[in-house]
C-alpha cells in the first residue's frame, strides 16, 4: 500500500532541521539571549502600534515565572489561558511551560458551558484571562471555584477565586533570567507542554496532550522551507486566535524562532490597510478568509468598466494556465507579459507585494478558490494537519504547488494509507494522547501490523500519489444513501460554498433515497440559491446530485453553537439542531 517514509518525504525541503533545543522555553529564551534588541511581536495598543523586543519578552517570562512559582503554581498544574492575540499571551504561555506547568489555551469566544467542560475535564484551578467579561465568565464556569485568577486587564469579579492578581504584579516581580534559562535547558522534550482542546466539529472537545517534542518537530520540519523562502527578518501577519492549535505552534513558537516578526492583526476589516503597512511575507488562515478576500475583489471588479473586467479575467485565466503547467502559445505569452504589468502586479501590490506564502489549513481548500489567487501570482498553498500532530503534517511548497493536494509530509513524518484509505501518520510530532481518556487514545494511536510502532489514525480518507497527499473526506462523515451509494459531504459542501450565492452549506442523506442540502444564503443572494445548486449539480454524478434543498432558519455562528471559533461548520450539531427541517427535505 502507498507509504511515505521520512527519507522519501525529505525530498521536498531537505532533511529535518537539527535543533539544539530540547524544549520550547529553552528555544525562545536562548534566541532572546542571542538577539535581545530585535523586534519579536508588534501589537496595537493605546492608539498606535507597539513593539515587544526579544529581550523584553525574556525579562517578562522570567518575572512572570518567578511570581507564578511564588504564588504556588507547581509542575504539572494545568492553567487556563484565555486571551486575544497579545504579547502577554506569549509571555504567560512560555513562563508556565518554563516552570513545568501545563498551559490550556482556550478560545475567548467559548461559552460558559465550553469553559465549564474544559475546566472540569482538565482539572485546571488557575486561569489567566484578559477582559473583565472573560474573567466573570470563566469564574462562573469553574465547577469548584478557582484557586487563582490572573487578569491582564480585568478587575476581579465578585467571588471569582481565592486570590486575584493583576498582570502588572507579575511583571514587577524580580526574575532570575540566567537561572530560568538553565532550568529550561534541562526540560525533557517529552514533558507535557500544553493541552489543546479540539474545536469539535462534532462531539465533545477532547484535550490533546502535546509534549515539547511535537511542536519542535513541526519547527524542524519547516526550517528548510523557511530558509529557502528567506523569511528571516520578514513579517508574519497573524489573525487566527492564539488558542487555535495551528496559531499556537506557528505564531508563538515556530515563526518567531525562525526570525520572523509577528504582527497581530486588528481584524479582517483592517486587513487591506495592514497589508499595505506591514507588507508581510507570510500569512496563514482558514479557507473562509480567502473566500471573503475573493468576494471583496470581485465586488470591486463589478464597479469597473467591461474592458477592465475582461482584462482581469484574462489575466486570471492565463496566470492559472501557466501555474498549472500549461503551455502558452506565442500570442498568449505576449498577452501574459502585458497583463502581468497591467493587472497581476497591481493585484499583488494590494497584498503588500512581498508575500512568499499564503498558507491555508483547518478545512478543505477548494481548488477553484486557491486557483483564483494563484492565477494572480499570489502563492496560496494548502497545508494539512491536526491538533493531534502538533499540528502540521503536510504542506505544498510554493515552488512546487499542486493545488488539488495538501502537499508532501514534513521531513521526519511518515505517512501511509490503511486498507480502507484512512491516512495514518507517525513521527515525533504525534500527541501523547487525549487527557484522561485512554479509550479514545487507544482508538487514535494504534499499530497496524504486529511488532511495529503505532500510527496516528487521522480519521481522514486520502490518496498518496508521487509522495503527495490528497484528502478526499472524513472517514466518519461519508453518507450512505438508501441505494448503498457512498457520497462525500465535504466535497458537496465545498462546491456549494464556492458559489457566490451560498455562504454556508450542510448536506445530509444518510439512509435516504438521495442527498439534500441546508443552505445559508450570502447576503442579498437568497433568490439565486436555486441557480447555484443547479450549477453545482451539473458538475456532479447522478448519485451525488442534491435532490432537494432548503434555507436554514438562521446562519450558523459561534454564538448559536453551530460554528467553531475557526469558522468551521459543526456538521453533526447542525444535523441535530435542524433535524426537523432536514427530515422535511428528505420526504
Could you characterize what this model shows?
It is a single chain. Helix 5 packs across helix 6 (132-141). The protein is globular, with a radius of gyration of 24 Å. The model is unreliable at 7-14 (pLDDT under 50). A nine-stranded mixed sheet has the order 3-2-12-11-13-14-15-16-17, sandwiched between helices. The protein folds into three domains: 23-187 and 231-281, Rossmann fold, CATH 3.40.50; 283-353 and 356-474, ANL, N-terminal domain (Rossmann fold, 3-Layer(aba) Sandwich), CATH 3.40.50.12780; 478-586, ANL, C-terminal domain (GMP Synthetase, Chain A, domain 3), CATH 3.30.300.30. The longest helix is centred in the middle third of the chain and has 21 residues, at 330-350. By secondary structure, the chain is α/β, with parallel strands linked by helices. It starts with a strand and ends with a helix. A hairpin with a 4-residue loop joins strand 18 and strand 19. Residues 32-435 form the AMP-dependent synthetase/ligase domain. It comes from Belnapia arida. This is Long-chain fatty acid--CoA ligase. Keywords: ATP-binding, Ligase, Nucleotide-binding.
